[in-house]
Amino acid sequence: MDKKNVCVVFDLDDTLYLERDYVRSGFRVVGEWCAERLGLEGVQEQAQALFDQGRRGDIFDAALDRLGVGRDAGTVSTMVRIYREHAPQIKLLPDAVECLARLQDRVYLGLLTDGNPVSQWAKIDALGLRDRFDTTVVTGEWGIEFSKPHVRGYRHLESQSGTCSGRFVYVADNPSKDFLAPRTLGWNGIRVRRPAGLHEHQGCSSDLARFEVSNLEPVPDLVSELYKTQF
Ligand SMILES: [Mg+2]
Fold first, then answer.
1. How far does residue 27's CA lie from ligand 1's centre (Å)?
2. How far apart are CA 217 and CA 52, in angstroms?
3. Looking at residue 4, what is its pLDDT?
4. pLDDT value at residue 1
C-alpha cells in the first residue's frame, strides 16, 4: 500500500513526551525569575507541591499566598507569561522516538495539539519535531473554540493528507476530548495510557478508542493490523 494511503496522527502532551516534565521545567524557570527579580525564594517548590496535590488554574496565586506574599495581578500574569513562553527542557520518550522512526516515510504523519500556540511551538521545537510531520495542527492558532473535541483540526488533516480516505488513526492520551471527533469521523483511536501521564487514572471505553497501550512501541504493528500494511 502506498505510504500516503494511511494517516497516523499524534497528540503531543503525554503522548510523545511527559507533560509533568514540561510543568516542572516551567516552574523552574518561573522560580528563577522570582528569585532574581523579586528576591523571592521557594516559588518553584511551592508551585510543584501544589501541582502534585492536584491544584490547577491558580497555582502561582496560591504559591505566592503560601509564601506570605501579597497577590499582585501584574506579577502573576508575568509569571504565567514566563511559564508559557519558556523554552522547555523536555525530551521525546524513547518509545516515541522509535515509533516515529518506524512510521516515518511509510504513512502520512500528522500532529494535532491544543493549547497556547506559543507554548505548543516551544515544545515542538524543544522536541525537534518542527519538520517531522507532514502536517502539524496547533488548534490554538485558530482560537480556543476549535480545541478538541472540535472536528476542525481532524478535518484539516483529512483534507491535507490526500489519498488516505477512511484510513485515519489518532494516537492520544485524554479520553475526555481526544477521541470524540475521531469516532464521529470514522477514525480509529489508539489510547496511550502512560504511567505518570496526567490522565493515567482515567478509563477509556473501547467504543471511543479501539486499542489501549501503555507506550507507543506497539503502535506501528496495530496500524499494520488495522490496514493490512507492513512496516
Ligand atoms: Mg495529550
1. 19
2. 28
3. 74
4. 45
Cβ atoms of 84 and 118 closer than 8 Å: yes
Cα distance between residue 40 and residue 134, in whole Å: 45
Q: How far apart are the C-alpha atoms of 190 and 80, rounded to whole Å? A: 33
For 58-90, write each residue's pLDDT tens digit.
999 999 999 999 878 899 999 999 999 999 999
Q: How many angstroms is it from 178 CA to the middle of ligand 1?
A: 8
SS3 116: coil
Question: Which parts of the chain sit beneath pLDDT 50?
Answer: 1
Count of CB atoms within 10 A of residue 97's CB?
15
CA of 94 to the centre of ligand 1 (A): 17
Ligand 1 center from residue 17 Cα (angstroms) = 9
pLDDT of residue 70: 83
Tell me the β-bridge partners of 112: 137
Q: How many Å lie between the centroid of ligand 1 and the Cα of residue 205?
A: 17
* Ligand 1 centre distance from Cα of residue 193 (Å): 10
Cα of 67 vs centre of ligand 1, distance in Å, is: 32
Please write down the HEC assignment for all residues of 20-87: HHHHHHHHHHHHHHHHHHHCCCCHHHHHHHHHHCCCCCCHHHHHHHHCCCCCCHHHHHHHHHHHHHCC
- Which pTM does this prediction carry? 0.95
**13 CA to middle of ligand 1, Å?**
4
Beta-bridge partners for 102: none
Query: Residue holding cell 475526555?
Result: 176
The 3-state DSSP class for residue 136 equals strand
